[in-house]
Design brief:
five-stranded antiparallel β-sheet; 11 strands; mainly beta; single chain; six-stranded antiparallel β-sheet; 142 residues
Length: 142
């Protein structure tokens, strides 16, 4: 998975994945990806653990309280030479905002934390089974 982001301060992404039909995410099926802060778009490569081909993904974007917003421009999933991409507003066909901790400005693609005093940052959950269907298509595409 590759994501195109603007992350101005050093931070981390917490990636959760599922291989079955549920979206009950847990720490045992997750990993962290460090992101170096930059004032411009950057492509962040997210490599899932060996032998893991997820069918659902959750992204938690920030633990850094100084991170005011993250601009999420695009994502791409690739598997065995096949890929699919979503950018801009199309991202939200596949992901939904966790309303308990995330504010979204769809026009600019900016994600911010609701409570600026907690390290719980913005997060995106799968939007129904749209992501699972696309990821399954990648696995079985010839």
């Amino acid at each position: 998975m590759n994501v195109d982001l603007v992350v101005k301060n050093d931070d981390s992404l917490h990636i959760y994945y599922k291989k079955g039909g549920t979206i009950n995410f847990n720490e045992n099926e997750s990993f962290w990806v460090r992101v170096k802060g930059q004032n411009k778009n950057q492509k962040v490569a997210i490599e899932f653990p060996k032998d893991i081909v997820p069918n659902q993904v959750r992204i938690d974007f920030s633990r850094n309280l100084e991170q005011r917003e993250i601009i999420f421009n695009k994502f791409e999933f690739a598997y065995r030479g096949n890929s699919f991409v979503a950018k801009g507003k199309d991202i939200y066909k596949y992901f939904r905002v966790d309303d308990s901790n995330t504010l979204l400005n769809k026009e600019f693609g900016s994600l911010t934390r609701k409570d600026t005093t907690t390290t719980v940052g913005p997060s995106l959950y799968p939007n129904g089974y749209y992501l699972a269907v696309k990821l399954d298509e990648l696995k079985f595409k010839k």
